[in-house]
Structures are given as structure tokens and as C-alpha cells.
Amino acid sequence: MIKLTNVTKTYVGKNDVHALKGVSLTVEPGEIYGIIGLSGAGKSTLIRCINMLEKPTEGSVIVDGQELTSLSTDKLREARKKIGMIFQHFNLLSSRTVYDNIAFPLELEGRSKQEIEQTITPLLELVGLTDKKYHYPSQLSGGQKQRVGIARALANNPEVLLCDEATSALDPQTTKSILELLQDVNRKLKLTIVLITHEMHVIKEICHHVAVIENGLIIEQGKVIDVFTNPQSATAKEFVGSVISTNLPEEIIRSFSLSPVPIPNSNIIARLTFLGESANDPVIASLIRCFDVDVSILFGNIDYIQGNPFGILIISISGNEDSLKNTMDYLNNKNLKVEVIGYVSTND
Ligand SMILES: Nc1ncnc2c1ncn2[C@@H]1O[C@H](COP(=O)(O)OP(=O)(O)OP(=O)(O)O)[C@@H](O)[C@H]1O
Questions:
Q1: Could you tell me if the CB of 132 is within 6 A of ligand 1?
Q2: Number of H helices, E strands in the chain
Q3: Which CATH number, 3.10.20.90, 3.40.50.2300, 3.40.50.300, 3.30.70.270, labels domain 2-243?
Q4: What is the pLDDT of residues 71-111, one digit of tens each?
Q5: Superfamily of domain 250-345
Q6: Which residues form the ABC transporter domain (predicted)?
Q7: In this structure, is the dihedral angle defined by the CA atoms of residues 217, 223, 228 and 231, taken in order, positive or negative?
Q8: The pTM is what?
Q9: Whose CA is nearest to atom 31 of ligand 1?
Q10: Distance 241 CA to ligand 1 centre (A)
Q11: Is residue 37 within 6 Å of ligand 1 at its C-beta?
Q12: Which one, out of 210, 233, 260, 275, has a CA that is 20 to 30 A from the CA of 79?
């Protein structure tokens, strides 16, 4: 549905800013694609390049089969009808009611009053604002304003919805309800959604794919479940760590000295990551039963990523050299990820 190839964007000025340095990504029809990055990474520039609010310096932007970078103004205006957008600060017209805000893009199109009403009535229902149709933006909460923004973006029946930090100005509860609404319109209208955010929980809640942007470059991308369970870059690890604990708590680290290399008579400290079916396996019980080892659990956490169970256990395994080797062989052959964090002397 969307294909960006080697997109660059340089803001020319006294000091040129290379905001995008060659970004390529593909968004499949009907998916929710999240782009995450720290402040200044290039997220806003990137999402605005998808509908040509920013014209890329170089590269290709194809939306629904159409190359947008070379279109005339008229053709671009036409192509943009397929691309709705919502904003962090809603961008509503304060002098217009909810109904009239949603009607605005349709009025610009020259649609009749009757046509407009036929479009808006179900949209108001979809976003849950039927009873607020004659309210003004100043009479609405942040969440309700964003619902108006969503309805307005959907008025032209777009194929793609771009969300520019759509929940960043909202409290956690309202964020949750707006994310649920986005998921709802994605499913009901088969809408392709691209969102940018600096909050990993937004990605975890609703996205299918994620790209991590840093310093104008995509440094990692993949299925959300894969990036969460096996982040590669330091930045992705940090983002994942902000919503799912995967490390030993500081208190435990401080209580013993961890060696990165094997030492004589040591316990192995290992992190086990369980995904899907493997989360239900009684692995620890099997270890104790089958091998002559003791296992203590130092840390455990179980979470769900879009319905998939995802668990982390950090364990200390003690036993003689042979038992430890057999245990590690056993774990490495199971359907889970095993990482040795370090070794601790049994005297510790
Ligand atoms: N119109 C502009 N003129 C010059 N530089 C710009 C302009 N817009 C953005 N930049 C610069 O481009 C870089 C990327 O900015 P961008 O807003 O895309 O990042 P971001 O990841 O969205 O950041 P934030 O989360 O803080 O909004 C930054 O260094 C920013 O200062």
C-alpha cells in the first residue's frame, strides 16, 4: 500500500539539517505500521513525506500504486484524498461544531448537504460522538477532540490513515480508548494505518510491524513480536525495556559479583525467553527432575503482545560441571531463547 525507497529530506538553511538520510520501508494493505524514535529522530518528517506535506529531497514515495513525488498540484490534491491524517494537537477549527469540523473536507469537495449528512451520521456513531454533534471543540475533552480528528480524517473514505503522535497529549486511559478506536477502524474499514510515536506501549498495543528510526535512518524493522522478543539495536532494546522488564533487578546484581566468563565452581545465571506455546512448558520442573541441578528463580515476568504470551525468567542453575552442561544442552534444544547472563561463584 505504501512503499518508500531511499527517501532523503534535507532542510536547507544556514546549517542544513539532514532529517532523513535514505529511508526505505513497505507498509502492507490493512496493517498498522508503527514508527518509533526519540525526539529529533525524523519521525514527523517521515510521516509528512508520505502525504507530501514535506516534499522529499530525493527518493520515491508510492501510495496505492501512485508515485507521489512527481505529481502536479492538482493530481496531488486528488491523491491526498486517499490519505487521512490526525495530529497530536487535533487541529480542529474552534469556531465550528463537531459536525461542521467533520463536514469541512466534504464541503471543500463541494458535496451536497444531504450527502454530507449521510457520510457524517455513521462516522459520529463510529467514533462515539453522536450526542456531541453540536458541541464546540472547547466543550470537549482531549480524547473527544481526537475522536473528531479521526472522524474528519475518515470523511473522505481514505485508504490510509497517518497518525502523527495521535495519543501523546492524552492521559493513559484516554490513550487506551483512542488506540482501541484506531484498531476498530483498522479492522472495520480495512484501513492501512501508519503511526509515529515515541512510546513503545503504543506499538505494543496495536501495531503489526514496527520500524525504529534514529538520526534519520531506520535502524531496525520487523514484526512487533520479533522486535519485542529479540531487539537488535541498543535503541530498540531500550524501547522494549521501557515496557517489558527483561533485565535482572539492580538489587540482585548488587548482591553478587557476576563474571562474564565461566569460573570454577560457579552457578550459571541465564535468561530464558518464552514465546507462544513454549510459555506454557514446565521447563523448570523438567530441569530439576531430569538433571542433577538446583534452580532458583531470580526474576520472572509474563506479558502478552497482541494475545501472544511472552515470558522472561532469569534463573540461577547450580550443579556439577556435567549436570550444568546437560542442562544447557537441554535448554538450547527447547523452543525458547536462552542467554547466559554470567556466572556467580557458589561461595557468593
Ligand atoms: N522545517 C524544518 N526546518 C529545519 N529543520 C527541521 C524542520 N523540521 C524538522 N527539522 C529538523 O529535522 C530533524 C528531525 O525532526 P522531526 O521533527 O522530523 O523529528 P521527530 O522525530 O518528529 O522529533 P519530535 O519527536 O521531537 O517531534 C530535527 O533535527 C529537526 O530540528
A1: no
A2: 12, 14
A3: 3.40.50.300
A4: 999 999 999 999 999 999 999 999 999 999 999 999 998 99
A5: ACT domain (3.30.70.260)
A6: 2-240
A7: negative
A8: 0.87
A9: 40
A10: 25
A11: yes
A12: 210
